[in-house]
């Protein structure tokens, strides 16, 4: 299958490894990935911060960049939710593509670590990803999946909320980090690099805390002792 | 109507700490006498069937004329019927009709005993709002004794309304 | 009236919230209480197989009400009047307060009993009555706690949610005449409130209530409660004054069937609340001899004209959205500066007042848009969508506006975006070297990013952007 990747602006600039992992998984499964170069941002940041006009410009430019593509995938729950609400692009979050469209849960990965999974809000409540990411992680060889306490609680990122309401965001982050630490996991996985940047930035200040990882990176891992 | 509805009503009313007492028509006078044995007096609305009070052995007061202050006398209980009841929620519905009286009768005394006939029980609230004979009568829906959740969101029984609610359920056929 | 309405935030939300966060006891109380109620709600909602269809139907009924407000207001007024009530129309808070104050004065009393009512909170009725020399006694236990403490409510359903039992016992010992219990058992505390208020109820000649629903078809009012204080107020005094927001209307009596299933399960997490009173006009020999209904607009018709924001008028004040909101759970209701706190407050207060009132324009940002509120709303108000809508239509700082415009300008063009990525990468290079011991993360950044690094490390631009990697590996 030919699959167009919407990598997201954040991954492009800060977390290219998430895009690379997505490409790696899909190519390993025998699919052809394309990267329309006209893409940048879906407009979510602008829309949610209160700027509908620039948001519309970016929604339209994203739509134009992916015109003619039948299947679009993105490793970001919140960007997919935004594009689905504001464009007509046939866009799938990575776990939706794998489980629903490609009908695979075992992507041939091996990740010999203890992992806990945080279902990010957009994936949980807007996309209703359900247990898809956990099913994918559950099929990864040598991965031990640990339950995160109060998983459905928001991590406190919320885009510019993290700056505008820094104190509340920090308090929510403290609780999320404490839950993550309590699992004893090596890695905390999630489906959104934005939330992971926030949670990971908090975990980095806690000795012995799990390291943040996008679940696509886990799905891309294979060899012995691999880590992202 | 069905035995299942009666059973559900009894279970749900019991969930909210109402005393629930299934009984036959023959057992009714003695059961009511037992439930009301501790009352200093029993308030009776107009239209109370005579068999309800046959064995009471307590002073009875006509609900028609009592003031709120009189109803506040220590130890008073009130004995009523109801218009309808809701199985799903264990709710009694009073509309001021026969054997129910004014709204304050079932509010000021600390003990309310209510007789429910199985035929009065409807399945759920939407059935109730359709079945009400006259929705413009003063209606009171009662689900368990007076309660509050205002302290740490824990439900505790017993604030301003009756702290004790006993429901007597008569079987489907008479 | 120059007094600020109690739905206007006098402090920006971020500042008020930061202050509330420092109160560890408050957070502990809120955390415990909201967790309790969340679990109870989830259990009773799970019992209803058609819950989602119920929500859809209720949303449709309320949308119909919002579409036909003037018509239904008139229909209600006709029916209630025919049943013996006197109906008043109040365009704003001041008008409503004036009507109620005059009605109370006409009865020659200086003391009224009150059933908990959001509409009267919204208009600051108690303060208006006090200014006219009338004492309003709140009879709901939580409202009584708040009143005894000279505090303001912090939750729609449980205004004293920020107090725990020990604090309530202490308060009663200090402020409730005749209280001398050693126990902080909630049953004992509730019993004390019963003793304290009984005499007040028996002596009251005027009561003031709100309504959970008002039925246009029959002119009926519905008051949903637990303690029996509502029934006391609705049946003992001679005169009853109901202050009812016009959005409380339902077209038909039969509509109550759905709404009385949705409300208790969503608010207290019960299948049914202990007492629901439904009354239509006056009934000779039973209850008050005079019933006045004050139908309150106070910004509602203006709200109804906003195609997105109007859905907030569906709200039945169940407070389920507060109980699941991660922001509310941590900061409590006072931070919202309004009697309507939490997610619903963040969309209701600014719409009722206009975003230029006080700091109400900061309220739509008091959310991560996590969507938990939308999931539990019994009338399916898409609160996150309305929050975004209010952000998009509200005032914004000039610097942010410029930055956002520049970002969009850069991002919408492939060459500019690629150049920006390369500039960021180059700028990040020395930082990546300096921060190597923190795993390539920035621990302290200058303003405005210092708001980020105050709580967490910041990531740095990658050494190679994704598109450069793609170009290197796939485009050749």
TrEMBL record, chain A:
Annotated GO CC locations: cytosol
Residues in Cysteine-rich domain copies: 3-84, 115-199
Pfam families reported in the protein's UniProt record: CCG
UniProt superkingdom: Bacteria
InterPro entries: Cys_rich_dom
Gene Ontology molecular-function annotations: oxidoreductase activity
Protein name: L-lactate dehydrogenase complex protein LldE
UniProtKB/TrEMBL annotation, chain B:
Residues of the LUD domain: 78-168
Matches recorded under InterPro entries: FTHF_cligase-like_sf (IPR024185), LUD_dom (IPR003741), NagB/RpiA_transferase-like (IPR037171)
Protein's recorded name: L-lactate dehydrogenase complex protein LldG
Source organism: Micromonospora matsumotoense
UniProtKB/TrEMBL annotation, chain C:
Residue ranges occupied by any Lactate utilization protein B C-terminal domain in the UniProt entry: 392-473
PROSITE patterns (UniProt xref): 4FE4S_FER_1
Keywords in alphabetical order: 4Fe-4S, Electron transport, Iron, Iron-sulfur, Metal-binding, Repeat, Transport
Domain LUD: 74-296
Record domain 4Fe-4S ferredoxin-type: where: 312-381
Domain of life of the native organism: Bacteria
InterPro entries in the cross-refs: 4Fe4S_Fe-S-bd (IPR017896), 4Fe4S_Fe_S_CS (IPR017900), FTHF_cligase-like_sf (IPR024185), Helical_ferredxn (IPR009051), LUD_dom (IPR003741), LutB/LldF (IPR004452), LutB_C (IPR024569), NagB/RpiA_transferase-like (IPR037171)
A single GO molecular function term of this UniProt record: metal ion binding
Protein name according to UniProt: L-lactate dehydrogenase complex protein LldF
GO biological process terms on file: lactate metabolic process
């Amino acid at each position: 299958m030919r699959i167009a990747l919407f990598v997201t602006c954040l991954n492009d600039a800060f977390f290219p490894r998430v895009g690379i992992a997505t490409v790696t998984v899909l190519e390993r499964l025998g699919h052809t990935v394309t990267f329309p170069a006209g893409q940048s941002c879906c407009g979510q940041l602008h829309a949610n911060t209160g700027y509908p006009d620039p948001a519309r410009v970016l929604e339209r430019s994203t739509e134009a960049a992916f015109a003619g593509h039948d299947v679009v995938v993105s490793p970001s729950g919140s960007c997919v939710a935004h594009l689905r609400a504001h464009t007509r692009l046939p866009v799938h979050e990575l776990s939706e593509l794998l489980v629903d469209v490609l009908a695979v849960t075992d992507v041939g990965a091996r990740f010999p670590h203890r992992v806990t999974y945080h279902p990010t809000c957009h994936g949980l409540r807007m996309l209703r990803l359900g247990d898809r990411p956990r099913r994918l992680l559950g099929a990864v060889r040598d991965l031990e999946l640990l339950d995160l306490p109060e998983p459905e609680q928001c991590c406190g990122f919320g885009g510019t909320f993290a700056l505008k309401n820094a104190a509340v965001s920090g308090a929510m982050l403290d609780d999320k980090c404490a839950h993550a630490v309590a699992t004893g996991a090596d890695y905390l996985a999630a489906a959104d690099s934005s939330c992971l940047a926030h949670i990971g930035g908090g975990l980095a200040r806690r000795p012995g805390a799990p390291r943040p990882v996008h679940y696509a990176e886990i799905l891309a891992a294979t060899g012995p002792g691999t880590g992202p | 109507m069905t035995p299942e509805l009666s059973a559900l009503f009894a279970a749900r009313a019991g969930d909210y700490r109402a005393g629930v007492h299934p009984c036959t028509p023959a057992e009714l006078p003695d059961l009511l006498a037992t439930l009301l044995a501790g009352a200093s007096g029993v308030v009776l609305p107009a239209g109370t069937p005579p068999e309800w009070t046959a064995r009471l052995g307590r002073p009875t007061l006509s609900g028609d004329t009592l003031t709120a202050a009189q109803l506040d006398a220590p130890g008073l209980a009130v004995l009523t019927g109801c218009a309808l009841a809701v199985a799903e929620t264990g709710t009694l519905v009073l509309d001021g009709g026969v054997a129910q009286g004014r709204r304050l009768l079932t509010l000021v005394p600390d003990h309310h005993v209510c007789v429910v006939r199985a035929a009065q029980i409807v399945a759920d609230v939407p059935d109730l709002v359709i079945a009400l004979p006259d929705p413009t009568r003063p209606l009171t829906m009662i689900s368990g004794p007076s309660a509050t959740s205002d302290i740490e969101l824990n439900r505790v029984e017993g604030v301003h309304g009756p702290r004790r609610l006993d429901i007597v359920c008569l079987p489907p056929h008479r | 009236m120059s007094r600020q309405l109690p739905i206007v935030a006098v402090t920006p939300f971020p500042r008020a919230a930061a202050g509330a966060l420092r109160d560890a006891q408050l957070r502990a109380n809120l955390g415990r209480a909201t967790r309790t109620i969340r679990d109870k709600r989830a259990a009773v909602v799970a019992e209803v197989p058609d819950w989602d269809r119920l929500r859809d139907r209720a949303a449709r009924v309320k949308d119909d009400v919002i579409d036909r407000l003037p018509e239904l207001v008139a229909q209600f007024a006709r029916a209630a009047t025919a049943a013996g009530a006197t109906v008043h129309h109040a365009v704003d808070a001041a008008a409503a307060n004036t009507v109620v104050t005059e009605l109370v004065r006409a009865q020659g009393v200086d003391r009224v009993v009150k059933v908990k009512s959001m509409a009267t909170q919204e208009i600051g009725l108690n303060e208006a009555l006090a200014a006219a020399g009338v004492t309003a006694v709140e009879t709901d236990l939580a409202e009584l706690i708040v009143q005894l403490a000279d505090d303001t409510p912090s939750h729609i359903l449980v205004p004293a949610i920020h107090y725990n039992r020990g604090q309530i016992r202490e308060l009663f010992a200090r402020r409730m005449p005749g209280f001398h219990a050693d126990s902080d058992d909630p049953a004992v505390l509730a019993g004390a409130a019963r003793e304290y208020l009984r005499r007040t109820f028996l002596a009251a000649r005027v009561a003031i209530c709100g309504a959970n629903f008002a039925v246009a078809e029959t002119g009926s009012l519905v008051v949903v409660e637990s303690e029996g204080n509502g029934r006391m107020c609705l049946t003992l005094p001679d005169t009853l004054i109901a202050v009812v927001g016009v959005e409380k209307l339902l077209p038909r009596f039969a509509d109550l069937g759905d709404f009385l299933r949705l409300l208790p399960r969503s608010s207290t997490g019960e299948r049914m609340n202990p007492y629901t009173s439904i009354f239509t006009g006056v009934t000779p020999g039973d209850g008050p001899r005079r019933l006045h209904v004050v139908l309150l607009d106070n910004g509602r018709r203006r709200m109804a004209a906003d195609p997105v924001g109007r859905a907030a008028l569906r709200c039945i004040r169940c407070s389920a959205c507060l109980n699941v909101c991660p922001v509310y759970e941590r900061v409590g209701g006072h931070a919202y500066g309004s009697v309507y706190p939490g997610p619903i407050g963040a969309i209701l207060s600014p719409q009722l007042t206009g975003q230029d009132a006080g700091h109400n324009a900061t309220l739509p940002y008091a959310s991560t848009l996590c969507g938990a509120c939308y999931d539990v709303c019994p009338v399916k108000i898409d609160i996150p969508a309305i929050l975004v809508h209010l952000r998009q239509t509200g005032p914004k700082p000039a610097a942010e506006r410029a930055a956002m415009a520049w970002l969009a300008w850069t991002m919408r063009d492939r060459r500019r975006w690629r150049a920006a990525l390369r500039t960021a990468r180059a700028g990040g290079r020395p930082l990546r070297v300096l921060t190597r011991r923190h795993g390539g993360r920035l621990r302290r950044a200058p303003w405005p990013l210092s708001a980020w690094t105050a709580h967490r490390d910041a990531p740095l631009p990658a050494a190679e952007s994704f598109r450069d990697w793609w170009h290197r590996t796939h485009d050749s």
